[in-house]
Amino acid sequence: MRILITGAAGFIGSHVADAALAAGHEVRGLDSLAPAVHDGKPGYWPGDAELIVADIRDRVAVSRALDGVEAVCHQAALVGLGVDLADLPAYSDVNVTGTAVLLDAMGRREVPRLILASSMVVYGEGSYDCPAHGPVRPLPRDPGDLALGRFDPRCPHCASELRPAVVSESATLDPRNAYAVSKVAQEQLSAVWARLTGGTAVALRYHNVYGPRMPRDTPYSGVAAIFRSALEAGRAPLVFEDGGQRRDFVHAADVAAANLAAFGSGHAGQLRAYNIASGEPHTIGEMAQALAGAVGGPEPEVTGHFRLGDVRHIVASAELATSELGFRAMTPFSLGMSQFAGAPLREPADGHKVSLRGR
């Protein structure tokens, strides 16, 4: 199969490219190689795969990139939370308009299959149970509670602290920052494309992805890479809130495998969404401790700091991906973190290194 991977030079896109080539597919990459992210074509890009340097919003370039393509794996996106109003235009332009340009070109070129990189952020907070009221959707966390160190969401009916539960793909979407809103929009646009063209669209809702080639010390860095960088510099990882935030950390190699599995799945004329997760939840504090232990570095420091755009707990059910895609994460947390502690990260582009000391 000839596959176009957008955002192909990035962290996840490049792992998908490697896996697709190893499986015998023909890979064409499209990446803007934005100066804020790349200094040029990365050394890890495979020599036997084409890489087109163009912006996802460039209608002419995107149409040409689709020539002869049988499926698209859409990874290109501006990532990160988006913390203030000034971020809204960029997230809307790159992620939403870029996806619309791609889908329009796919329709014109009659490309029948789309794999979309979505995210757990579409859910907002995860699933919760109240001891008195059962399953509930929490309201956004109160800044006053956060300032007092009360980090767990409260029941909207009785204000009791809630117990986290696993979130399934049927959960109500509740995006709570600019990036999350753009991911919901990408899914909805993809669903429209599928209905109008009869194409097959699969949205993979990635949970916390980590692994080699994560960007180091940039606004796009994930929390695992931020902790790694602190430890390499001899500093303690700075853990936000009380470190008890629960997440599902899934290795990039497993995410790449999920993308390949999705090429053989889906239903014509509709979008199907799947959680891509390990099924093995851990806290942010446990992740920091695992990395510190692997390198013999300083003990993590819990700061109590918080960001209003962050969610408290989000733990996935990966059962649907297992039953319908045949996907199951193969990298256990302990092994993955041990390997990641010494894995190469992607250096920031010149002039774009920033100080990101904790999450």
Question: How would you portray this structure in words?
Answer:
The protein is of the alpha/beta class. About 30% of the residues lie in helices and about 20% in strands. It has a 7-stranded parallel β-sheet, with helices on both faces. The chain has a 4-stranded mixed β-sheet with strand order 7-6-8-17, with no helix packed on it. Strand 6 (about 125-130) and strand 7 form a beta hairpin. The N and C termini lie far apart (about 40 Å). Mean pLDDT is about 90; it is low at about 350-359.
Structural class: alpha/beta
DSSP summary: helix tally: 10
Q: Report the radius of gyration as a whole number of Å.
A: 20 Å
- What is the chains' assembly state? single chain
Helix content: 25-40%
Unreliable runs: 351-359
Q: Give me the count of strands.
A: 17
Helix-strand pattern: EHEEHEHEEEHEHEEHEEEHEEHEEHH
Quick gist of this model?
The protein has 359 residues and is an alpha/beta fold.
What is the element layout, followed by pairings?
Blueprint: E1 2-6, H1 11-22, E2 26-31, E3 50-53, H2 59-65, E4 71-74, H3 88-109, E5 113-119, E6 127-130, E7 134-136, H4 143-147, E8 163-167, H5 178-197, E9 200-206, E10 208-210, H6 223-232, E11 238-239, E12 246-247, E13 249-251, H7 252-262, E14 270-276, E15 282-283, H8 284-295, E16 301-302, E17 315-316, H9 319-325, H10 333-340
Parallel strand pairs: 1-2, 1-4, 2-3, 4-5, 5-9, 8-17, 9-14, 10-13, 11-16
Antiparallel strand pairs: 6-7, 6-8, 12-15
